[in-house]
Amino acid sequence: MKLTLKVWRQKNSKTRGRMETYPIDGIDEDMSFLEMIDVLNQNLIKEKKDPVAFDHDCREGICGMCSMFINGEPHGPEKGVTTCQLHMRSFKDGDTIVIEPWRAEAFPVIKDLVVDRSAFDTIIQAGGYISVNTGNAMEANAIPVDKSIANEAMNAAICIGCGACVAACKNSSAMLFLSAKVSHLNMLPQGEVEGKRRVLKMMKAHDEAGFGSCTNTGACSAECPKEISLSNIARLNRAYIAASLTSEESI
Amino acid sequence: MSWITNFFTSSVGKKVIMSITGIFLCTFLAAHMSGNFLLLKNDGGQAFNEYAKFMSTFPLIRVLSIVTFIGLLFHAVDGIWLVLQNRKARPVKYHSFKGGANSSWTSRNMGLLGVIILFFLIVHLKSFWFEMKFGTIQYVEYGGVKYKDLYSIVVSAFSQWWYVLLYIICLIALSLHLMHGFQSAFQTLGLNHKKYTPIIKGVGLAFSILVPLGFAIQPIYVLLKSMNVF
Ligand code: SF4
Ligand code: FES
Question: Which side of chain B, N or C, has fewer Cβ within a 10 Å radius?
């Protein structure tokens, strides 16, 4: 395959970036998108140019590091996959592919396609944990949890923190991420105890980090590689409204 | 800050204001639209003028109309605040952004549609509400009781084709605004349920088509009548 790549290049967080065009040849359609970028970087190194910086780690869709905004969509055109799971067969010979970093006030660009996602860590630190040591795994039937609740909690727990929801959202809102984290902890008995405090603190951290407000466009869920459902955001809203009204703590 | 201001300035709280005022304004729209069908009655405007007098003098309705004004104000100001803040959350824009791949056009343009509706409301209130209250309106008499002749003002406004066209364009904007807004209001309040959400979405779609359609029939009817089509 022969392609034209338009890639965002930016030296560091202080400099202004720009789009650069790179023709590339010899791409196999069975290559993953990141392998295609590896080929591009090999070429750039041979030409004694600076290779394109990008985040990646597991390359199997579980770490959430790879973060590329490809042709106007986070993680490219396929549904339910991360950039590392995207293959070149999703593109045609002769295509032009535009590759940009996530864009959000809360995700500043570090270099090229690498953004700083520590705002997510700040949200997790605000309440995305259980304060007591839960010790060894207990006898499975000691705490009864309804299977449907367990399923819902696990469907939320599957969020890999990639940030595609923020990247896709026209408001750069992190509600889908936040709602997945709150749902997965609040729905289970171990997490329910601190539920109110958790939702108030995590929402506060979300807003302070500079993410926008959710306007229910649904873009996040449509682009989420783990297909986290919008019903989590409704559950979060419900929990937040209830906690604001009933919690005796002022957070 | 107290917990109340904390709540209403949070990203969810701002949306709660939008959704509660939005749902309230929907009930207003439905009532306003149904009442105005009296314009279509072939009685030279008597029923409509009587209705207009009742609506502008009956105490409970007066209170409700003040609440509606306040609701509208909150909806508009909070909406503008939301748009501005959400823009700030993405200072550097994308070169290529394919919003259509993951969301509806209306859901991404609620602010724009809202501004069109606000512009319409200003024209609308100037033409009718302002004229009725502060303008030099004529009086008519039915059975010895004097009524302000709002009917004639409405008819003369709706006899201009461009005025009717402006109405229809704004009603299309209203329809699109409702298509997203109605169901979105419930989602914001956390009212999402496997059984009820499909019903809410269905009712929302019907509402956002039927109410603007009802509103559109009235000026079109008056215009056609003034052109002696029937
Ligand atoms: S909710 Fe989905 S898109 Fe957002 S961070 Fe989690 S996995 Fe990524
Ligand atoms: S590199 Fe780990 S999810 Fe893509």
Answer: C
* Confidence at residue A132, expressed as pLDDT on a 0 to 100 scale: 87
Answer yes or no: are the C-beta atoms of B79 and B18 closer than 8 Å.
Answer: yes
Name the closest residue on chain B to residue A77, using Cα atoms.
B101
Q: Which residues pair with A8 in a beta bridge?
A: A19
> Residue B134 has which token pair?
């502060």
Which ligand lies nearest to the CA atom of residue A174 in the structure?
Answer: 1
pLDDT of the residue at A162 = 98
| Whole-prediction pTM | 0.94
Q: How far is A190 from chain B (nearest CA, A)?
A: 23
A247, with CB counted inside 10 A (0-12, 13-18, 19+), is middle
Over residues A90-142, the pLDDT tens digits come to 999 999 999 999 999 999 999 999 999 999 999 999 999 999 887 788 888 88
Distance A102 CA to ligand 1 centre (A): 13
Has residue A67 got a pLDDT over 90?
Answer: yes
Q: Is the CB of A81 under 6 A from ligand 2?
A: no
Classified by CATH at the fold level, domain A3-110 comes out as: Ubiquitin-like (UB roll) (3.10.20)
The more confident residue out of A227 and B4 is: A227
CB count, 10 Å around CB of A133?
Answer: 5
**CATH superfamily label, A118-246:** Alpha-helical ferredoxin (1.10.1060.10)
Structure tokens at B41: 């009655």
- Chain B: closest CA distance from residue A139 (Å): 32
DSSP A104: B
In this complex, the residue of B6, B88, B98 whose CB is nearest that of residue A73 is B98
Q: Which atom of ligand 1 lies nearest, measured to the CA of A168?
A: 3
Q: What is the pLDDT of residues A211-223, one digit of tens each?
A: 999 999 999 999 9
What does the alpha-carbon distance between residue B23 and residue A218 come to, in Å, rounded to a whole number?
Answer: 20
What does the domain layout of chain A look like in residue ranges?
Answer: 3-110, 118-246
Domains with residue ranges and CATH for chain B: 2-226 (1.20.1300)
Q: Which residues of A touch B98 (CB under 8 A)?
A: 71-73
Q: Residue A187: name the closest of A161, A159, A163, A155 by CA.
A: A155
CA torsion through residues A144, A150, A156, A158, sign: positive
- Low-confidence residues of chain B, pLDDT below 50? none
> Which pLDDT belongs to residue B166?
94
